[in-house]
């Protein structure tokens, strides 16, 4: 038996065989962004301006919260902390084309996706839920030419069955699906299209985890969840077109807030047409901005209450936006949509967030001023389960 026959097939060899494409065995490398400043310069266009006030009180200036945060110290509304993470790689170039016709070449993008939720009891953190998977994004042309429906899912299963992946399966990872991206040439690069598919998959997994927590009756007015990052999910077409399903989607986020370390300061009309960047940059320590109401037609019939909160003194940060987080809450009831979030609730949530801030600087992590400490721990827990770059790329 030859050495080639004895060696287990790697992923690209299986994909090449199943799709009929041609692997070029290109250089493999990470597509993840490097660390960069959260500041986005300039003003946003009118198409993404906020429409009106998003809270019950008429507030036009900063709201002080240090006294309230001291009054509630030692207690917290926040019990659950959710984060999603993905590592994305360019693993090959593959050519597709009918016999005798020009071969088109497309990148193959792969990613590790981890979504985790940690629960706090007293001063201890526990893993409540954790999901991890490996996905591949390929051009949709890979499933053309008469391939049966479900071809990509079936191909992903063949990847799981390979003996090369036995060690990966034993460590808890699995190939769950292959995500097609559009092969038609558009403004986006194909690498970006593949990465976008993996990012969308990660966000879908986050939504499913929140829905599971709600189904298990884990969330209520005394047990909120902080989700790391924005809540500006784009519901599926089926959800957007069905009012009942849309309301069910919103109900899942009744006791959830999103906290973003990075954001793009936008023009906020409720602040008297003043540019948002300057208004936010001057935010005093332990103060919040007025709450704004925000919608985006791409997200369907969903309204957001959005405000900014300063956790760190500018004397100890590098940029005007270090130490500021963006807070979002989906407006669920008809009363909230009409009148905005209760201002007292916005104050209470903000005061609790001040008490959750990162107690120390973690060396080379430039985001430390914006960290919510339990979210930081959840993020580290998820990333500790990743395969190393070398081990992951070796699979291909």
Please give a structural write-up.
This protein is of the alpha+beta class and 396 residues long. 30% of the residues lie in helices and 24% in strands. It contains 13 helices and 14 strands. The strands form two sheets. Strands 1, 2, 3, 5, 6, 7, 8, 9, 10, 12, 13 and 14 form a twelve-stranded mixed sheet that branches. The relative contact order is 0.19.
Quick structural gist:
The protein has 396 residues and is an alpha+beta fold. The protein contains 13 helices and 14 strands.
Keyword list:
alpha+beta; disordered N terminus; 396 residues; 13 helices
**Number of β-strand runs:** 14
Distance between the termini: 23 Å
State mean pLDDT (0 to 100 scale).
84
Strand content: 15-25%
Helical amount: 25-40%
Unreliable spans: 1-8, 34-49, 267-271
Rg over C-alpha atoms, rounded to the nearest angstrom = 23 Å
Question: What is the string of helix and strand elements?
Answer: HHEEEEHEEEHHEHEHHEHEEEEHHHH
**How would you classify the helix and strand content by structural class?**
alpha+beta
How would a crystallographer describe the biggest sheet? 12 strands, mixed
The outline comes out as elongated
How many distinct helices?
Answer: 13
Strand and helix map with partners:
Layout: H1 3-6, H2 11-19, E1 22-23, E2 29-30, E3 52-53, E4 63-64, H3 66-71, E5 78-96, E6 104-121, E7 124-139, H4 151-161, H5 166-170, E8 175-181, H6 190-215, E9 224-228, H7 237-241, H8 243-251, E10 256-260, H9 276-281, E11 287-288, E12 292-294, E13 304-310, E14 324-330, H10 334-339, H11 343-355, H12 373-383, H13 389-394
Parallel strand pairs: 5-9, 7-8, 9-10
Antiparallel strand pairs: 1-5, 2-5, 3-12, 4-11, 5-6, 6-7, 10-14, 12-13, 13-14
């Amino acid at each position: 038996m030859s050495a080639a026959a004895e060696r287990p097939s790697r992923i690209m060899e299986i994909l090449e065989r199943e799709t009929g494409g041609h692997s070029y065995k290109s250089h493999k490398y990470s597509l993840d962004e490097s660390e960069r400043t959260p500041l986005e310069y300039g003003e946003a266009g009118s198409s993404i301006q906020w429409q009106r006030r998003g809270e019950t009180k008429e507030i036009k200036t900063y709201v002080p919260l240090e006294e309230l945060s001291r009054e509630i110290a030692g207690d917290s509304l926040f019990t659950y902390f959710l984060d999603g993470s993905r590592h994305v790689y360019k693993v090959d170039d593959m050519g597709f084309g009918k016999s005798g016709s020009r071969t088109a070449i497309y990148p193959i993008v792969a990613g590790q996706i981890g979504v985790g939720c940690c629960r706090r009891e007293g001063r201890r953190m526990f893993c409540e839920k954790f999901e991890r998977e490996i996905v591949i994004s390929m051009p949709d042309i890979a499933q053309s030419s008469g391939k049966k429906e479900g071809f990509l899912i079936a191909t992903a299963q063949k990847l799981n069955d390979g003996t090369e992946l036995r060690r990966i399966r034993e460590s808890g990872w699995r190939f769950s699906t292959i995500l097609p991206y559009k092969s038609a040439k558009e403004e986006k690069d194909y690498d970006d299209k593949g990465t976008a598919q993996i990012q969308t998959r990660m966000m879908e997994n986050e939504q499913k985890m929140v829905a599971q927590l709600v189904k298990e009756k884990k969330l209520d007015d005394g047990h909120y969840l902080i989700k790391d990052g924005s809540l500006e999910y784009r519901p599926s077409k089926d959800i957007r077109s069905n009012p009942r399903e849309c309301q069910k989607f919103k109900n899942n986020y009744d006791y959830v807030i999103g906290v973003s370390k990075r954001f793009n300061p936008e023009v906020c009309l409720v602040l008297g047409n003043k540019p948002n960047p300057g208004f936010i940059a001057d935010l005093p320590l332990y103060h919040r901005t007025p709450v704004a109401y925000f919608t985006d037609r791409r997200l369907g019939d969903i309204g957001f209450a959005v405000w900014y909160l300063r956790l760190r003194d500018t004397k100890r940060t590098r940029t005007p936006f270090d130490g500021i987080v963006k807070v979002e809450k989906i407006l669920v009831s008809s009363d909230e949509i009409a009148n905005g979030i209760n201002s007292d609730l916005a104050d209470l949530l903000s005061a609790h967030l001040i008490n959750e801030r990162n107690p120390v600087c973690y060396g080379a992590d430039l985001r430390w001023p914006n960290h919510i400490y339990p979210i930081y721990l959840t993020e580290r827990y998820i990333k500790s389960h990743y395969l190393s770059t070398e081990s992951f790329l070796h699979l291909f």
